[in-house]
Fold these 2 entries.
Entry 1:
Amino acid sequence: DGGITQSPKYLFRKEGQNVTLSCEQNLNHDAMYWYRQDPGQGLRLIYYSQIVNDFQKGDIAEGYSVSREKKESFPLTVTSAQKNPTAFYLCASTTMEGSVTGELFFGEGSRLTVL
Amino acid sequence: GNSVTQMEGPVTLSEEAFLTINCTYTATGYPSLFWYVQYPGEGLQLLLKATKADDKGSNKGFEATYRKETTSFHLEKGSVQVSDSAVYFCALSDHGDDKIIFGKGTRLHILP
């Protein structure tokens, strides 16, 4: 079945360690996004990419990095520079038309807890 | 800049009650508007959308009408069920802008 797969679903890390969250889609979507969700804060955009080998910062990119070497993959690295990394991370994708119209398809999320 | 404001939750209702979740927006252009729903432990799913003024989006008994004059897109359902318990997000996409802006979400609890 087509969809977006995020892994791992739960992740625990020690402070100061970098972690990488995986996001893979087999929907042949051009655009991919990473959002962070905190209680009472809604969704905040971290990074997004509309084509391979290109990506843009969102509203809260500091302390994060991404790559887009393949159309189907958009991994997010939470670096040690991110001051408060404990959160629920959501990956989404859409077609080029959807990136304008706003119809996103979401993965099930990855919950990162920094100890 | 663009923004979305929705009513704070949690909203707690009894089964079969009428639901309204308010959403207002600020946009420089003529945005498309959306409601997304997030069930416990899951990602978001598109619930309904409207792309121009006076359009009504509807799905699973939920409705929302794009009101340009009041810059609103309130979500309504005539008779809620326990299975409607979730977090609801209002969102906008301003044509020509790559970003999709979400509200903070409203948690809905339906009691049997």
Entry 2:
Amino acid sequence: AQTVTQSQPEMSVQEAETVTLSCTYDTSESDYYLFWYKQPPSRQMILVIRQEAYKQQNATENRFSVNFQKAAKSFSLKISDSQLGDAAMYFCATDWGAQKLVFGQGTRLTINP
Amino acid sequence: EAGVAQSPRYKIIEKRQSVAFWCNPISGHATLYWYQQILGQGPKLLIQFQNNGVVDDSQLPKDRFSAERLKGVDSTLKIQPAKLEDSAVYLCASSAPDRALNMATFGSGTRLTVV
């Protein structure tokens, strides 16, 4: 069975600083995707970044980047130049089977002004 | 493009009552999902539709939960009778069938409180 573990229930960072959120996963799939979703108080899950497992190059989207270590089954999210609008719950997820998502427990990110 | 629409946004019911949630996916998205998100946890898949057929409902408590997707577009999720432990946010999501393009888009969810 696929599992996703986020070991940091809460993280905080000063505005404009860099923060890294951790995620480890376990999957029996050979072909899979990994995702980071952001969930603000509005509750809508917003896709931040995704990584295809067969690609060695780490995905980057503006201030967001990942460190994908396939052998270690690790998929961390780095947020550079943190902004107040980045404050939210962040969920790591992997897909399996027919595009079904399995989520971690989430990390609450607080940005200190 | 319009996003995934869900209603109602909030619902409070007493235990043993019934409740229904509605979802309208993004136009052209053949795959539709219902997730349950209990407070403090990540979303958990309840049921997945491909057009109007069920792909996976292995985690749906079928003694009290039911879902349908008529004509392969809108979907409703029903709980009857509700229990206290059903208090959660119910998220609907949709995606295109091509996995390479797959980026599930979520609605804002319905927060259900069972008292």
